[in-house]
Protein 1
Amino acid sequence: MKRSQLDKDRGFVPDLGALLRDAAGATMLVLVNPNNPTGAFVPSEFIEAVLSMLDPRTLLLVDETYVDYVSPSPSVERKVAGRDNLLVLKSMSKYYALSGARVAYLAAPSRIIGRLSTISPPWAVGLPSQVAAVAALGDESYYRERVRQTRQLRERLAADLRGLLGLRVYHSVANFILMELLDPSLSAEVVYCEMKRRGVHVRNCDSQSVQFNGRFLRTAVKDAVGNRVIAAALREVLETREVAAATG
């Protein structure tokens, strides 16, 4: 397996040429869109360009777990029917808040589905999860409103975080935000522990890529009160560290 490194100065948006070079000779190219943990995404035109230039023997798997947070949606699920090498993975765990139910599906060419059916369990999704999924699909207007609110809350939280010294906040289309620590004396693990001590949990992104190199954190978007708590705690951690560095 080879990871295609994304450039933070491009906002972690993949470069088409570099992506295709990395995919040369590969059995499968996996594209997470929107990306986790960066929150970056590419439009459907980008994926169509990848398909047009990708070796037809290479499968393209697009993970669209967070795609419903984007408006208009860049989903390419409907394009599967016209392609022999396109697979799209969809999940109800994020947009529909059914993470514990483990409800997801794969849209793929029939030959791929046929091969997978020989190794898939006959009851991959239990009855309670099926009932929850059907109920969620029956109230689409509720989820659209929740996503609209999430977008507003995300932009407000991002603005508050951008007001903190020593922090770079990356643009996100999902329900989380990626942050980079600019102070070389401060590590993601230290900030993670200090935030946890204050009752606020953020994600140290070190385990997700060596590229993050102890500098990146991810926070979920909460309600208005929760977002204020996150921003206030992070401000306190950063300012306390600044004072310690100045007096140490």
Protein 2
Amino acid sequence: MDTRSTRAVFLDRDGVINSGQDLYYVTHPDQFVLNEGIGEFLKKLQDAGYLLI
């Protein structure tokens, strides 16, 4: 049995990845706006060996 573990980060979309924009949910791609700096932050997590879920 493989006993190695994988480090993972579970990400919530609304308010974490994208701005809330006072919308209950995104109904159209135009409503989806990434939070500032999230791309760089996610890259740092990946570079540190985390699986992004």
Protein 3
Amino acid sequence: MLARTRTASSLKSASSSRSRRSSAWGVAPPLCLGPAASSKSSRSPLTASKLGRCSSSPPSFMSFAPVLRLTSCVLIAGFMACGGSTEVDMGQTPRADGASNGGSSNGPGNGQSGSPCGADPCANHTGDKTFVEDDAPADAPAQFADSTPQEPGSDAKRQPAIVYPSHETMFPINVSRIRHDWTAGGSDLFELRFEGPNTTVSIYTTSLTWTPTDEQWDWIAESNRGASVKLTVTGLDTSSPEESWRSEPNAALFSEAAVDGAIYYWSTGTKGIMRATVGSPLPEKFYTDPSGSDSESCAACHTLSRDGKRLAVGYNGERLREVSVPERETLVPLATTEPDPEATPMMPGMPAMPKPGMGGGMMAEGMAAAWTTFSPDGKMLLVAADGVLTLIDSDTGATIGDDSGVVATPAGAMATHPDWAATGDKVALTLGTKGGNKEIEAGSIAVLPYADGAWGEAEVIVASTGNDDNNFFPVWSPDSKLLAYVHAEGKSKDAVSAELRLLDVGTGRNISLVRVNQRISNVDGVLGGGNTMPTWAPSTQQGVFWLAFSSVRAYSVVRPADDKEDQIWIAAIDPSAEGDPSYAAFWAPFQSIAEGNHRAFWTHASEDTQCRCVEQCGDSLDNDCDGTADEEGCSECSVEEICGDGIDNDCDCVVDDCNVEICNDGIDNDEDGNTDGDDPQCQVE
């Protein structure tokens, strides 16, 4: 292979013509793709598992492709079951690289392609595409083509109206089973038209609801990733097809890449913790108390470590249990076998019950626990119960520090709802004047500093003005700069007035997320949605973040009125926006409509492919998915690679990779997938 090795001095002179591939991405470390590099940095603790050949594509959110995409849905046993459709290709032939993507189950840091859509290339369709559903006549496209379209506002009674999804909803490209509902407006045949920068897709149906198939979603969403698509519904009365009536348009937006992570939520129907990804067709029942039947025990409010390897739950009267993920093995409380000499045998001739904390086969009862949060490295667990915070070792359950692990908080305040930032230096919490584990009143949001094993003094950053000003459930954004929290009038439990707010801790800017809170079933200004228990999706790079929350709001025509049963909703948040940074929320399609679903805790998962091979210093994000942001030994990620220093300077997962692309020699010299003139960084020999 023809190659040129540069010295450190030659790098400077060459930087203007070849600024390293990372300059196209800023200096964010890319995603690891394969075998480890032959050497490693002397300053950075990069193991062989972290180093390797990495993607030459820009880093992005990545995940496995949706498992199943359905259409023509009906409600069966609380879940949506769906059928199929036929298609008529009226447009251009897709390019060879436009195949729809399949599934992937790679562990963190083991992505296998540079595609932002997962293991397979993204769908890159262009042009027009028409799908005629099974219930529609074959000549439906011709009927609409022959009709005279009437613009929105011509006759409000005749034109259809889009009910769901709401205007300005952003969707991850790997969530596809999004049902679409609209009113008839006097029509019995409908055209859904999705107009994006790359494709225009038309769907024909006689139904008032439609859910995309895998292929349809590839044409609509994945081929227009990172863009906005205009949706209109046009209706036609087949008994008098001379005129057709068009709805007001909706804007549907799509993420630039798939969104990673697993969502663990508490279901009141199953009395346990359910697990799903945004692309899952159905959830799995992940955890219930193994010591009792589902009808007798309940794994309630829960927390996961940021690396997704530990789960803490409160069960059977809010007793702490910590289990490993995915094994579900109990870690805390420790098993016991040594008999307690003061205990009475259960039956004559039988030994007494084991003594707590001595190790063995029987489970000791866990400590009281209502709300918990792990330290970023997962080694410690902060437990809130009855207004008191206690720090314990997450391996043994032993308390850490003086005063039996109790963390000092302001006198007279009930401390609850702790959330440990990924940077490890602070915990957000709620300080209330009264209440208990299940509810709090007159709550204020505070930040508790933590450094070198010592706690600082709590600082109130959102102060309550009284019983009608309640602030609770604070959660840190992936970069530890924003706090999402809940504001309500009155008590925190079952508060229909609850709304989500966002605080920029650095600037003090406090925002009510109006689109998330008040745009419901495509109607603005809807109050009383009862939005609560927010959690952020993990992210390895800056950009749009994702927030999951529980709500009793209406869900389209499936649940047209507010209900006492919470459901999981998801919304995109753009921290760089000047006004309201939120987009309208969508209903998480993996859940059951017949159950109450709460506390959608979002964390890293074995399916993730967004994890980077190195931790980048200074961006406050957990790039390598180990739970901790900017940990000791992180890399500075300079723009250029310095040859011969044994360091991965540019964070592309390859040490001393100084090969230069030579123009017109027919060889991919720098092994970035681009040969000669296809590589804009090539140099003339």
Protein 4
Amino acid sequence: MFACAPSKEKICGKIDDSIRNYLEKSASKANKDLTIHALKTTDFSLVGAGRLDTLSKESYNKKITYFSQRYTASGNAAKADLDSINYYAKLDSLTTLQIANRWQDPQVYYYSKTYLSATMGTVKTADTMRYALDRTFKLIPIL
């Protein structure tokens, strides 16, 4: 007798529950009110750890570019921006090493496509977001 894989709807529901829990914990930690108007995972794919590393590197590079532009625009006077550039450059280098050293990683992750409409404090969000979760549906923050 073989066990059937859970249905797509069931997995999407578990992903939604995990995202909701993560958002609630984040709001509580930041001491902000949270109102979730809509939260619906419409699709997901299974990805390997290498894909998550690539997403992290893309995020780091965007932040490096952002802080570099701010640093240049401020007449090179903003030391905090330079510190941020160095911080994300270091994270990018560490991720590059991690990718090079990971020749075989059997872990598979869920990569969801989720519509979120929410208000946290005074910040409103209404967009299709991407979230990464491990096989136990624990959300993996990708900067």
